[in-house]
Amino acid sequence: MEYKVAKYILIKEDIIGDIKSGILQPGDKVDSESTLKKKYNVSTITVRKAFNDLINEGYLIGVQGMGTFVRKKQMIRGLTSISFSDELLQQGYQIDMLVDKIEEVFHPSIADILEIPHDQSIICVSRVRLANDEPIAYQSSYVDSRILSIEQANRIHENASFYKTLKEFKIFPTWVNENYSVKQVNDSRIAKLMNIKKNHDTFFVKRIAFDELDKVIEYAETHFNKDWYSVTVNIKI
Residue 230 — pLDDT band, cuts 50, 70, 90? Predict the structure, then answer.
């Protein structure tokens, strides 16, 4: 017996096929509702059902007033490694960074987090994190200048990794505490570096890294582009 495939399923399968074959690339705009209605001789309801399913299944994303696009592959954080770079490498991404600035600052509230005197200078290393040449995050790390000098911090240009730079100077974080929230990027310069609009919502992560003696060695703040980033947590009972 021959069974008919529902038209919305046919539309879904064709779009998924085009994504998997590379005809449709991440960020590409898919055909409009009106185009698909004519192509498949179906109603608006049928096309919307296909689109809704594809959006819920993570293949597409709808942008109000602009259309429907192939969703960019998200970086899935499994919280299995201190190094975000290591997790991305394990998922097959090409990673890189653009160093924005390395400076010596005084910051009382961050000094409190680092558990150092307010008059002690702090080295701040700010950089844009890239995956497959796309900016996915803006990250600033703060370290006591007595632990890492500004000259040593500049080694990040050669190492292309903050944690490799720490390791080079015998600084070894062994565990971290992270706090996740949603926060807008209000700095237009940072928004431009992340290729997002100012006041765009991001995943905001505050990280405190500790050594084996539970001494604080780094405080970091990171804005992750929410369109590129998700977190998966496994809980065993």
Answer: low
The owner of tokens 């947590």 is 233
| 24 contact partners, CB below 8 Å, separation of at least 6 | 15, 18, 30, 70
Average pLDDT on 191-196 reads 94
Rounded distance between C-alpha atoms, residue 13 and residue 152, angstroms: 53
Length, in residues, of the chain: 237
Q: Report long-range pairs for 116-123 (Cβ below 8 Å, ≥24 apart).
A: 116/144, 120/144, 120/145, 120/146, 121/145, 123/148, 123/149, 123/150, 123/153
Q: What is the CA radius of gyration of the chain?
A: 22
Q: Name the pTM for this structure.
A: 0.67
Listed in sequence order, the residues at least 6 apart from 65 whose beta carbon sits closer than 8 Å to its beta carbon are none
Which of 168, 151, 147 shows the shortest CA–CA distance to 159? 168
Strand order in the sheet with 201-210: 95-105, 122-131, 134-144, 216-225, 201-210, 175-184
Q: Which of 166, 94, 96, 92 is nearest to 125 (CA)?
A: 166
Residue 116 scores a pLDDT above 50: yes
Distance between alpha carbon 8 and the CA centroid of its chain, in Å? 32
Confidence of residue 88 (pLDDT cuts 50, 70, 90): low
